[in-house]
Each structure stands twice: as structure tokens, then as C-alpha cells.
From TrEMBL:
<dbReference type="GO" id="GO:0016985">
    <property type="term" value="F:mannan endo-1,4-beta-mannosidase activity"/>
</dbReference>
<keyword id="KW-0378">Hydrolase</keyword>
<dbReference type="Pfam" id="PF26410">
    <property type="entry name" value="GH5_mannosidase"/>
</dbReference>
<keyword id="KW-0326">Glycosidase</keyword>
<feature type="domain" description="Glycoside hydrolase family 5">
    <location>
        <begin position="2"/>
        <end position="253"/>
    </location>
</feature>
<dbReference type="InterPro" id="IPR045053">
    <property type="entry name" value="MAN-like"/>
</dbReference>
<dbReference type="InterPro" id="IPR001547">
    <property type="entry name" value="Glyco_hydro_5"/>
</dbReference>
<protein>
    <recommendedName>
        <fullName>mannan endo-1,4-beta-mannosidase</fullName>
        <ecNumber>3.2.1.78</ecNumber>
    </recommendedName>
</protein>
<dbReference type="InterPro" id="IPR017853">
    <property type="entry name" value="GH"/>
</dbReference>
<comment type="similarity">
    <text>Belongs to the glycosyl hydrolase 5 (cellulase A) family.</text>
</comment>
Amino acid sequence: MRELDHLHALGVNNLRVQAGSEGPDTEPWRIVPSMQPSPGTYNNEVLDGLDFLLYEMGKRQMRAVMCLNNFWHWSGGFAQYVAWANGTATTIPYPGSYDQFEVFSAQFYRLTKATELFDNHIRFLLARTNRYTNVAYTNDTTIMSWELANEPRRLDLSWVHRTACLLKKLAPFQLVTTGVEGSISSNNFSNDHASPCIDYATFHLWVQNWNVFDPHNASVTLPIAIDFAKKYIEFHAAYKDKPVVLEEFGIAR
């Protein structure tokens, strides 16, 4: 609650919340404890914590973007759904090699079992009623939107449309978005958000992670990074079809 009070005092009124994390908790580089240690099995203490967070956010007039999945490994995400779909002997190729990991994680879109397991998570969570407020998640005005995933790369647009429309069917009074990084991830930004079930667009900006800024050579690379950041923002801000939100940015201190 101290952190919420601090954010509220700073004028922050919108928080992006990870609303799905997958086990097993013995895997490396994971959020632990996970919300879903195994397919369809949930940690009630984690769910209770999510209820409590939304309850406290509501008291402060904050709104939540509920991120349901993750392309990257730190919450389990796509890669864990792939491992579950392919069997327990499947080994996730953690970065290391991001190219190898991306190829593995992107199998998620074409594995029917993986996407079905995620759909089950969506249905489970959106059917939940907050035990502190007795308000159904789909009627909770604290929840502004549902986000398909954090930074989904190598997008399958049919999956985007189908999953976004599932969310719209289950939560017709809340917004739906993608969670994409923008053009850096080699997606087509306009196509990524073309589904009528997507309400607004997202992009992220990480000049150091994307090897534009080098903190060990800051005097040379910082002006380049600033120029890159301005152009990257301008490019995505020019998208006219739907509202656009820059929902992540950062650089080394």
C-alpha cells in the first residue's frame, strides 16, 4: 500500500498489472510464486493478492491495464504454454540467444493446445469476482483494459483477432489492447491493431535494450538515442486509426 500511496502522491493513476504468470516455480528467472503453477491449477494466495491490489487501486481512483500473458520468459508466458502443450520433457531455450528463444516462444500461436490453455486462463480470470469488493472483474471500473500479452513478437494476426474478440465477448464494457512494442519488433504496427476488437494501440521504447544507447559510451550514443526516441515516438503517434499509448520506456540511470 505504501507504493500505491507514493504513486498516487506523484499523480500516477494508471497501472499496468501482470494478470497471468505460469509455473512451475522451479524454472529459472521466474516470478514466484506463480499464479498458475500448472495448467488449470491456481495459487489462491496470488489470486487474493490480485483482488487486494485492485481493491486498493479502486480506493485511490487508479485504473488497471491487465496484462494476461507474456512473450518473454520472466513470468512463464508463451514459452511455458508451448512447453505445456508439447509435454513436460520440453526444454525452454532461455536467453542466451534471443533469436532462438523468440522462435521457440512464437510456436505458441500455431499450437492449438497452447492457445487453448491460454483461452482457459482468460475465461477463468474474467469469470472471477473480487473477494474484497464482491464485484465481478468484468464489471469492475478499476479495470480499464485487458492486454493480450507483454510484447508479443512474430505476431499471428488471426490469433490477435480471435483472442481480442474473446475478451470483448467476455468483457464488453472494458477496453482491449495488444501490448506490442511497435515497429522495433518487426510487426506491422497498423496491421497489429486492425482488429475491430482492439480498442487502442500500444508501443514501448527501450533504447538501451535495443542497443541504440550504450551506457559505457554515453557521450557518443546518448544524442543518437534521443534522436531515435523522438523519431520512434513520432512514427507511432502518426497512427490515426485508434488512440496510441506509450506504455513502457526506460534507460539506464
